[in-house]
Amino acid sequence: MKTKPLLLSALFLVSAATAADHFDIVRNLDIFASLFKEVNAYYVDAIQPKELIEKGIKGMLAHTDPYTSYISEENEDSFSIQTTGRYAGVGALVGGSDKKTVIVSLYAGFPAYEAGIRVGDELATIDGKNIDPQHADASVMLRGLANTRVTVQVKRPGQKELLTFHIMRRNITIPNISYQTLLDNNVAYIKLDDFMPGAGKELKNSLQYLKGLGANSLILDLRENPGGSLYEAINVANVFLPQSKKITSTKGKTKEWSKDYFTLDAPADVKMPIVVLTAKSTASASEIVAGALQDYDRALLLGQRTFGKGLVQTTRQLPYHAQLKITSARYYIPSGRCIQAMRYTQDGKPTYTPDSLRKTFKTTAGRQVRDGGGIEPDVVTEEKKVSPLSKHLLASGEIFSYAAFYCAQHAKPSSQKNFSLSDDDYNKFAQTLSKKKWSFVSSFEKEADRLMASLKEQVGYESMSPLLNDLKNSIRQNQNRELMQHKDEIKPLLEEEIAFHYDLIKGRVEQELSRDQELKEAAKLLADASRYQQLLRPR
User: Fold this and answer.
1) Which residues are catalytic?
2) Which domain holds residue 440?
3) The pTM is what?
4) CA 295 to CA 160: how far, in whole Å?
C-alpha cells in the first residue's frame, strides 16, 4: 500500500489552511497512512481495510458536530432520497425488528398502495427471495428502475395465506405537504412536513387552492418539521413575503458560504393573517421560515420554542462516489440573530447557550426577540406530556401491531375524523398485551432493581430477598392497572394509529386535529383580530 496518493491529497487540504497548519496536516496524514500500512501488513489476523478506514473516519468526525457525517457509496442512494425526496420504486417505507419486516408507511396514489399493499403487511418474499430481517435490505430490493416490475408476497394480519402483488415501479416524488383543509370560519390549514425540492411551489399551490374555497386566514403547521433545503426555505418564505426581502445570511469559513439570501419572486399573499405552529421538533429550514415571518411581523408563532439548529450543511464529493456532509456555516435570520442552541466542543460534546448570554434583537415593528436558543413563539403553549408507558408502547411497536390487527378485523369507517375506539376494544388491547407477556420496566421497578442491587452485598440480604421479589412481582402485576390508569392518553394514540392504517397520513392528521388544542388556540387567535394585531405590536 502506498502513501503517495494520501500525501498528494494533502496538498489540496493545506491550501485552505494557515501556514502554521501546513506541516501538521501533512505530518499527520503521513503518520496515518504509514500506520494503516503497518497494521494491514503485520496484524496477526486478516483485517477489512474498508471497515477499518470507515471506523477511523467516524472517529474523526465524532469530534465535530452530529450533522457532519460520511456517506459511503453504499449509502449514496438512501442519502439522495432523504435530500431530494425522489427515487424510483413503489412508494412504501419498510421497518420492523430482527424477526420480521413490515410495511410501516405508504404514499397514497403510488404503486404499492394502488396495487393493494397495506400498512402492517409483513414482507415474506420479494421477487421470489425470502426476506431475512437480519440481513436483507427490503428497501433496496423494492427500489429499481422505473417501469420495471417487482413481485411482492406479504402476510396480512388475520389471513393465513400469503397475498401476492405484481407492482410496476415508477418515479416517486415524496410530497412536502401531507395535509391541507379548510376549517371553520374560512381558516386554511396546511401541514408542511419537509423542505425538499418543490416545497415552495407546493405551498403556493395549496394556498391558492384553499383561497379559492374561501380561505381568508391560515394556520401553517411546522411542528415535527425537521427542515431540509435552505433554498426551499427561501421559496416557502417568499410565498408570504415581497420580492427582494432578505430571509437569511450565512457565515462560514469560506467566502462561498458567507452570503445573503433574498426572495426572488412575487409573493402569493402579503396580507392574510397567519399563525405558524411550532414545537421542539421544528428545526433548521423550518426555523428559518418561522423566524423570518416573525422578524418581519408577517405572522404570529404559537406553540413551544423550536429546536435551535442554526447550522448549514453542504455536501462535498469524495472519490469513489463517497460524500461528506459537512457543517459549512451558521445562518442568521433577518433581525440578525443566530438561533443555534448548542455549541460543540473540540471533542464533539454539546453545550447549551445559557439564557444569560442570549442577546436581544428587534423585529421590523420593534418587538424584542432573542438569539441562541431556537425561535420563541409569540404565544407559548404547554408541551403535550407523554407518559413512559405510552412511549414504551409506541417504541416497542405494540400500538402499531394492534392497529394492524384491528384493521384486519373491522371494516374501514367512512371518515376518520369521528372514529372512536370502543371501551370493549381497548380492553381487548390490554388483554392482548397480557397474553403476549409484554415487558415494560416502570420507574417503580427500576427503583426496586436498584434497591436490590444495593442491598445484595449487605448482611441479611438472603432473608430480605423473598420480600423484595414479592415487591417486584407486585409492581409487575400493576402493569395492567397502569394500562387502565393511562387509558385517556393511550386510547387516542391507538385511534390515531388505526386511522393511519386505514387512510395513511390523511387519516392520522384528521384524528389528531379533532383534539388538537394548539390548533384550536390558533383558530381562536385568528378569529380575534384585535388580539392578533396587539401581539404584532411592540410591548
Assistant:
1) 284, 295, 309
2) 388-518
3) 0.88
4) 59
